[in-house]
Structure formats: C-alpha cells, structure tokens
Amino acid sequence: MAAQFCLGTVQFGMRYGIHNTLGRQPTEAEVFDILDSALSANIKMFDTASAYGTSEDLLGRYDLGARGGKIISKLHPAVNGVQRDVRNEIQRSLARLSVSQLYCYMLHRVEDLDDTAVMEAMEDAKTSGWMNKIGVSIYNPQDAIRAAEDARIDVIQVPYNILDQRLDQCDFFVRAKERGKEVFARSAFLQGLLLMSPADAEKKVAGSGIYIENFQEVSQGAGYLPQEAAILYVLCHEGISYLVFGVDTSGQLYENVVLLSKRHAFSDTYQKLHGAFRDIDVNILEPQRWTISS
C-alpha cells in the first residue's frame, strides 16, 4: 500500500521546530480548523503524546476519536530510575483524548524495551483493548533494527528524510516488511532544515549548508519546491506506511495533500535523490545533537 499521511500534533501543544512559520503555537480555534481540514482531506491517522504539552487535551476537546480519527499516543519518557505506573498513564491519556481505545500506544524511548515491568504493562493494556498496537519511537538505525526484530512491537516510528537515508543502508525496511511491521516516518523536513536557504541552514547547523544546497538544486531543477520534494521523497518510499507531518495552518495542510497526486511524476527525481546522500555526519542528521546558535 502506498504511504499515507499521519498528522503530527506536537506543534499544537508546544513550540516546536526551528522553522515555525507562525512564530507561536496555533490557537485552539486554529487547531480545530486544521483538524477539520485534515478529516475533510481523508487524513485519518493522528500522532500525539503525553509529553507534547496540551496536545492530547486539544484533541480530546475536539472529540477527534468520535469524528473518526485514529490516534497514536506515547508513554512519557521518564527520568531514569523513576518507577512508572504505565497502566495509569495510558488511562490518563485515554481520558484526555476522550477515547476508550488508541490505534497505537508507543514507547517514547527504545530503552523501555528492556524494562520488564513497562513491557508487561504495555502487553496487558493491549490485551485489555486499550490499544490495537504497541509501537516504539526510535532515533537511530541500530535501535530501528532492534525494534524490527522485537515480536512485541507492531509499529515503528523512525526519522527519515532525503539527507538521512541510513535506514536504507542497513536494510531496516526489508527486515520490517518481513516481520509485518508498520513503519511511520517523521522528520521529512529535518525539523525545517531542508526548507532553509543553504546559508541559513549552515548558520543553524554547522556543516549542513552544502547538503541543503545540493538537495535544493536537484529538486528545483526538476521543478519542485524544497518542501514538495522533501515530502514526495518519503511518500514514494515503498517501505513506509505513513508519513507523519506537522503544519501550522490549514493552508499548509492542503498544500501537502495535493502532493499525493504527484507521486508518479516524481519517480525520476526520487531515483536521483535516493542513495545520493551518504556518510553525512550524525551531528547533522540527529536534531537532538544540534547546537543551535541564537
């Protein structure tokens, strides 16, 4: 099945990203308008987390579940050594979201796969019908491979974009498909870095400018804006089930939805970009490593 859209909601509940076009969080009315637009565009999957500020509360007040939305939420990444009541945390998320069942409940960090108590609670909650699937959000190829080989995991959320093609090089997608995993890809814009001018990108993340310039030259030479090429590249990947993307306005959402009809035309450009970026410094590829200048 071709990749579909999943609307990410982190920006609804907190300031997020280095290329936020509003310069602020959207208001509740603006969030509800975006959700209206998403459902009208046949987007049914939504990604949130208890760690995303007020995001769960907003989705609950909108009554997203009753309107047909499938919701993914995540276990809060606790401080090491802190004992968590996982069942209670899931129940709190369900209450905030005003739903009785989630499409998927994810571990927000891969280390929790080693916590017997956490995993037993997750599996018990799945058996109890609180969620259909158990997932994990990962940040690097080693953890992605580990998740693909873990029988307890149904869904894996990964960072993937034109610059970060490491998961292709380690055969993650092949392994995930063989084991029947759903793959959700996030960070198609690399938190906005791919959309900046090469000079601005270099100022934000040292060493990134030359790669941004190369990507934008290829995409613009083929007649695509950087944001179009970045999204189409992920949508064209056969190993990806859903592309998780965020927007600040309904207008941005519709701009992305239109791209679904352009996948076939993008195939030649996809072939030029696929495999074109290798051996990029991990400090560029992983935003948690960035030292952002003010």
Written description of the protein model:
With 294 residues, this protein is an alpha/beta fold. It has helices at residues 10-13, 28-40, 55-62, 86-97, 116-127, 141-148, 166-169, 172-178, 198-204, 209-221, 226-235, 250-258, 267-273, 282-285, and strands spanning 4-8, 45-47, 70-75, 102-107, 131-137, 155-159, 182-186, 242-245. An eight-stranded parallel beta barrel has the order 1-2-3-4-5-6-7-8, surrounded by five helices. Helix 3 (55-62) packs across helix 4. The longest helix has 13 residues, at 28-40. It is globular. The N and C termini lie far apart (43 Å).
Would you list the SSEs in sequence order as H and E?
Answer: EHHEHEHEHEHEHHEHHHEHHH
Strand content: 5-15%
| Structural class by sheet pairing and helices | alpha/beta
Specify the overall morphology.
globular
What's the total count of β strands? Answer: 8
> Number of DSSP helices?
14
Low-confidence runs: none
Kindly report the spatial arrangement of strands forming the biggest sheet.
1-2-3-4-5-6-7-8
Biggest sheet architecture: 8 strands, parallel, barrel
- What would you report as the Rg, rounded to the nearest angstrom? 19 Å
Share of helical residues: 40-55%
User: N- to C-terminal separation?
Assistant: 43 Å
Summed over residues and divided by their number, the pLDDT gives a mean of 92
